[in-house]
Every structure is written in structure tokens, then in C-alpha cells.
Design a protein that fits this description.
Elements lengths: L1 H6 L4 H17 L6 H4 L16 E6 L5 E6 L5 E5 L14
Antiparallel strand pairs: 1-2, 2-3
Length: 95
């Protein structure tokens, strides 16, 4: 997918199509997307967040060290913690 986007960076319709298709497949099969894939889809406009083309990525250390991904299409911001011991809640072992 990244190779296709690198060859045709002006084709934003392809990024919309890939993002929307991923969302629809996960909804229809009632399965969850992996956190690594889900973090690269905008929640508001369903476009794939490709750094430099459809999104900007910044590292901030104000509250705690985190990565801010901003969608350049709709302006939506996502924050992700950058700690070494950080795990997504469903990756943690059950209590």
C-alpha cells in the first residue's frame, strides 16, 4: 500500500478508498482493527494518514512525551503516548 501511495502521491481518492474500505471490513466482520493500523486512519474523514502527504507528525513533551498526528484534510488531532512501558489496554495480560 505504501509503495502505491509513493508512486502516485497526488491520488488522494486512493487514500480515502483504502481508509473507508478498512473501516467497512472491520465493521461488517465485527472484528477490531489492530492498533497499529487504526492509528493511521482519521476518525473524522476516514482517510489514511500518510506522513507528509495527508498528515503531520510532531513530538511533544509538554504533559508527558507523546506524538501528535494532525490530519491535513479535516484538522483532527490524535495523541499517542511514547513511553517504553506503554501498552494498549487489550494487549495487557488479563488480571
Amino acid at each position: 500500500m505504501h509503495k502505491t501511495i509513493a508512486k502516485f502521491p497526488e491520488n488522494l481518492g486512493l487514500l480515502y478508498y483504502y481508509g473507508f474500505t478498512l473501516q467497512m471490513i472491520s465493521q461488517r466482520t465485527t472484528s477490531k482493527l489492530d492498533h497499529n493500523i487504526k492509528s493511521f486512519i482519521c476518525k473524522r474523514c476516514n482517510i489514511l494518514l500518510y506522513p507528509g502527504l495527508t498528515s503531520t507528525v510532531r513530538l511533544k513533551t509538554k504533559r508527558s512525551k507523546h506524538r501528535v498526528v494532525t490530519c491535513m484534510v479535516c484538522g483532527r488531532r490524535k495523541r499517542f503516548l511514547c513511553r517504553r512501558d506503554y501498552q494498549v489496554w487489550y494487549d495487557k495480560p488479563p488480571a
